[in-house]
Amino acid sequence: MDATSQRLLMCRPTYFAVDYKINPWMDPSGPVDAALAVRQWEQLRQTYLDLGHTVEEITPVPGLPDMVFAANGGTVIDGRALAVQFRDPQRADEAPAYRAWFEAAGFEMYDPKHVNEGEGDVLLAGDHLLAGTGFRTAHASHAQLQEIFGYPVITMQLVDPRFYHLDTALTVLDERTVAYLPEAFSPGSQAVLRRLFPDAVHATMADAEVLGLNAVSDGRHVVLPAQATDLAAKLRDRGYETIGVDLSELLKAGGGPKCCTLRLRQGKASK
Ligand code: ARG
Fold it and tell me: Which strands sit side by side in the sheet containing 122-125, from one edge to the other?
């Protein structure tokens, strides 16, 4: 299997905390070790560098504890960047910070017309854009995604509040294959997934409950939460190399490796 070298955007969790609750994983009364969060994040970053990827960093903003989840900063495909609009006011100020970064980096900018939480809910799988809805990203934004990026958009209806973003329920492994938790999707979306990806890897609830599907694949190596051992074994059976990382502190905010990582797709050649 061929690995594609990727350009990634990350945000150091300098101001990370669990101060509010906007998903079932978050418990503002529980302990969070912010220094450990930074060390775990640095290990994730180093893992990408060791795989030959390029990691860019956006400067974290005080008072925005979830800004570490760069996947929610935008959708960037073929040199175009769609900025985001968060559902929750606690995250609203992240949107202009990410937008300014994309603009300075020279991407062609588009502004969202509806709630759209970026790559948390929008995943490019081969020639299809899979777009989640049900909890965060509004269904109405899917038409805008198709108009801007020119890929057929497939709506994925999420039904379990623990898997509130598409990237908590489904991982793109390569151009042809995905891994997902069937129960996280409506019956119709499950049927669409079976039709589009007959060879997909089905994850178990145990894997999904440690956010095992919140993984980053370069087509050959899959970086995923270390606790997702069954999923890792299934992926190795399929010929992928798995790299387990421990992001225990960020998991307390409902995030894993993919949430911390935004793919910057420059042009057609690097999609
Ligand atoms: N606490 C954040 C939220 O609820 C976590 C975001 C995780 N990001 C992701 N791409 N799934 O919005």
Answer: 122-125, 128-133, 153-157
